[in-house]
Fold this sequence. Notes:
By secondary structure, the chain is an alpha+beta fold. The longest helix has 17 residues, at about 35-50.
Amino acid sequence: MPGERLSIRDNSSVGRFHGVAASNGEAAPERHTESKQKKESGCRRWFQRACPCCFRRQNSSYDVTNGTDGVVVGGGENEEPTPPLTATGDTELNELTLVVRSINLLSGKSDRNKKEHHTDEYHSDELIIRRGQTFQMELDFSRPFNLNTDKLHLELKTGPLPQVSKKTHIIIPLVDELQDDRWEAKIVEQNVKRVKLSVNSPVNAVIGKYKLTCTTQCEKTGETTTHDPNKDIYMLFNPWCEDDTVYMESEKELKEYVLNDTGRIYYGTEMQIGARTWNFGQFDEGILEACLFVLDNSEVPPSGRGDPVNVVRVISAMINSPDDRGVLEGNWSGSYVGGTSPTAWSGSVEILRQYHKEGGTPVKYGQCWVFSGVTTTVLRCLGIPTRSVTNFQSAHDTDVSLTTDVYFDENMEPIHHLNSDSVWNFHVWNDCWMARPDLPPGLGGWQAVDSTPQETSHGTFRCGPASLAAVRSGQVYVKFDTPFVFAEVNSDKIYWQRNLDGTFSQIHSEKKAVGHCISTKAVGSDERVDITNLYKYPEGSEEERIAVETACRYGSKPDVYSSPIAEDVRVEVRMEGEGPRMGGDAQLKIVVKNTSSQPRRTTLHSQVAVMYYTGVLRDTVKKDTLNVALNPQEEKIIEWVLPYTQYQNQLVDQAALMMTLSGRVNETQQVLANQTSFRLRTPDLNIEPVGEAYVGKEMSAKITFTNPLPCTLRNVVIRVEGLGLRDLHPIKVGDVGKHANVTVTEHFIPTIAGKRKLVASLDCRQLSQVHGVADIDVRESQ
């Protein structure tokens, strides 16, 4: 059969087959009967064909050469050419040789393997299993398998250079009883020529794609054959296995963080939290291969893929592309020529497929929520429980001070070239679940992982995994990248003023400036859940202050908390309802309160600038000076308005603005400082399914949209996709007039039954973060 390799061991055949020469070159003794002579003659011819060199040593007068039709023998005068080999020897050999005819990996969607390993949702005919758990396969032999005289072992190989010492070349013996935590196989059922094996894998097995072969040996003949079924086995992490380091106990959480192929990603500001549906699609066709391709493109060898800490760290680096040609190219410029606007993506599938199809060319373009969405897809696909997490008012500490520093000159004007630290309106990263045997006890569980390229870690743009328990308690000295994550969620905002001699003095601090409303999708529903308490103690509590001061002692400014500052005048910015809407005037309230028993006077300087959601300021659109006089215990509310005409031509992605307030109290010289970001809310795409949904039956959905701006939107495209409903499909709408309504109808044929989500996003240069989602319950065809 094709794919089989037969190896004949000559010495072991002596005494087992008629006419096989002994090692001294003498033929086996003859019996002088006619029938025996005929039988011997046939066996001699079999031996002559099987091993012509040995036969030549026995008969020196013969010249043996290989012909196209058999063995041609020439020599003595009275000798006739030997005819082609008769079937006598072949038949006896074949009857004894044990050959694997086929291997059935039982990899069907409804087969026991995929059901028990929770891999039946993968759109693949290959066997996909999880480590630390048995799986089964069926072997068909050329004859019945004899436990007493036959031997069998399996081999699995992964990577370009498999090695037993590296656990990338696995030899699986046949045993009587399976034991935990090792590669072994056991016969659990035998029916004539068919044998069913139960195969066990250890909980620390390397994940990836394995090549399978099966080797058999007959003890009677010493014959060894190796069968290559040309089938692969995919090994994943196993969060259902108690001994796997990614084990998660709750079945509901496993269903959410491993098996759910859609989710919610949050954005905006803490007072205006927006949500969008994201298609993770980890089970879609070709996605598992694409995820392993991402690992293959890294510089980490396959032998390092047994440790989830290592795998997560690799994926964190490979999802971005500045230094390793990873999956996504980041772009925060506002110009997305030659690629797709980050706000236009609504899922990971097309990104990973494109990256795989183009051989590792980074896909254009991504920003933090896209990096996070793709990271969730890859890690869930590989079997690591993962979720996307959004931190509002997320600090970016650039000097490892573990504080967010703002610098002013002598006149209280911001010194822009020194203000390299920033606070993003929001930032999206990931939590993944695993034990951390490499850290002190108690630091396992959720780990923060950030694939957005911000700062390098050991020379590579990556971040994490950082233990949330360590972040919460200020243990910034444990790996990996805990100081950076701590600063993102719990750094104090320190204001500095330049002195006449060029030095700087601390003039104000905000202890509740960053790390607000840390959000993720709830388990089992589309609701938002606040997980801020996992990242830090309640703001202002003694535990939280101890954690901050502990962390800062390991930063570049360890003495920042040496001199506390008294305050009796407070300033803040308030917003009513959902906040300003795109296309209208932005209205806010500035609140100034005197908490002392004495009158206070101050001059407030306000300026509003257009801002990227990353906290990088673009242009100032309005400046004001406000004189405020306060009686004892008085609170004043100042109405503040930004007309649409002042910002309409200035906005960038996310439609975000930053208000900075600064001033000094005349009586006490207390410095007042506050920074508040807000965004202009955009409308939703309304998706209305038409009719009932059945597998294989065409249906449609109406998508409606109203332009909120008093100007024409140019080159509008609506991108529609839905897992099990349709692949990504761009609909070119064209220009949309001011305040105009648009309705488009999308036709599609559902392919998977169950509750599905149809997602749409609007791609337009003048308007971003416009999207919508509809739930569609697809039934089996009647």
